[in-house]
Amino acid sequence: MKKLISALCILLFSVSAFSQIGTNIPNVSLGNSKWTFGGYAGLGGAFGGSGGTSIYLTPRVGYKVDESFELGLATNFTWSTSKYYSATNIGIGPFMNYYFGRNIYINGTFQEYFVNQKDKINNTTFSTNEAALYLGGGYMQKLGEHVYMQIGGMYNVLYKADKSVFGGGFVPNIGIVYGL
Q1: Distances in Å between the alpha carbon of 8 and those of 65, 81, 87?
Q2: Quick one: how far is CA 30 from the chain centroid?
Q3: Predicted confidence band at 100 (pLDDT cuts at 50, 70, 90)?
Q4: For a designed S-S bond to 134, which of 13, 44, 109, 179 qualifies (C-beta 3.0 to 4.6 A apart)?
Q5: Burial, 74: exposed, middle or buried (Cβ in 10 Å; 0-12, 13-18, 19+)?
Q6: Rounded to an integer, what distance in angstroms lies between the CA atom of residue 118 and that of residue 123?
Q7: pTM for the complete prediction?
Q8: Dihedral sign for Cα atoms in the order 146, 152, 158, 160
Q9: CATH code of the domain in which 111 resides
Q10: What is the number of domains present in the chain?
């Protein structure tokens, strides 16, 4: 049952609507700063008898070692609830991006997740932590001065179907980065 709920959560998060920040930010100038900021956010819902709502936030801050290589820290917060369950996942860890001409990037991200789930029918709770090492890449589209949209995917190379709280290892992503 927990695997099914986790799979539904991941599917719900994967197809959620991503929010985007505006590209006209008044009175903000990066100048020669090497810092980058970004992330993505999502809001999802499920229709039918069980219903459900989910919120997904992933802010990140990075530092450009040079124009092609970035290191940083990403956090992750996911909250979901339905008639039958509720879950909260919090993750944190380092990431790296390597950029090829500001159009293509490859990515490596390590996240340590802290997971709390509640089965509302049986009134039971489950807590655990799980490590994930995502490797992937994607395409970047310039939106404005120093603002890019990243579209890509990552695969958790540590994913084990019979031991993970997550429904799968592949994660598509769409995000905004300011400061590149």
Answers
A1: 38, 11, 12
A2: 25
A3: very high
A4: 109
A5: buried
A6: 7
A7: 0.75
A8: positive
A9: 2.40.160.20
A10: 1
